[in-house]
Amino acid sequence: MSVHAISLMGPTASGKTDLAVWLAERFPLDIISVDSALVYRDMDIGTAKPDAATLARAPHRLIDLLPPTEAYSAGRFKRDAEAAMAEIAGQGRIPLLVGGTMLYFRALAGHLDDLPQAAPELRAELEARGKREGWPALHAQLAGLDPEAAARLQPNDSQRIQRALELCLTTGAPLSALLGKGEREVPPWLEIALFPQDRAWLHERINLRFRLMLEQGLVDELEHLRRKYPLTPDLPAMRCVGYRQAWQHLDGQIDRDTLYAQGAAATRQLAKRQLTWLRGWASAEKLDCAAPDLADRLARRIEQALGRPG
Asked: What is the pTM of this model?
């Protein structure tokens, strides 16, 4: 086999999971999830986690790893993914990395190896400022120091804003520049990015999917999570799109219609940030996720990568 691994990247609701399962049933591929929300147990509806029937057809590694009270990092993902890839390769198969958490893909490519460790004093100062001034104010500061990194983050994403500011202030260089360092040579790797030519097509799918999540019981799922675990709204798991808005609804801050409107809008913003990452991913081959012949084109490309006649 001439390729070491295959990555299938794309924005939320672009059809990655269905494509990955279809491919895994046709090629010697084992799926590794690259998703910062799917790592949490009991968070199924709001993360669009593959159901039991899908997982029986095509098992996914790196889902349901930890409770929603814990945090998961890009560094930990890198270690877990490399271990899973080694196991898959040892079985004579090819890892298929599928997801939309672009920072995790960057970490796996070696971009995060040389980033400085956190400075405790600076971190404490930024945390205090975040509580005092609000994270949107620190996001605005980050936009002045590193517009590229700020464009990928929500104004209330305290964990990532804090880390990006830490690095800017510690090194004097933007995070986007630092990510380019530490890249290492890797064996041949096929990178596919699902990139919609028609943004309206993706928005329609996002709106429909979030509506279905509400119909399937997203709010009830969060109620169950709050009873089962000692959760707070500032935990990384509860800042996931959909859960954040459902939390506000359960606390009486927004009604059901506003929950849908804000949740769908936040998901569209997430997709926009994911596409910003993908647009600059020079090594990825971009395929239109709305193309009717997408599956066949992808299969032919993988046949070529595996050294099979296409």
From this structure: 0.79
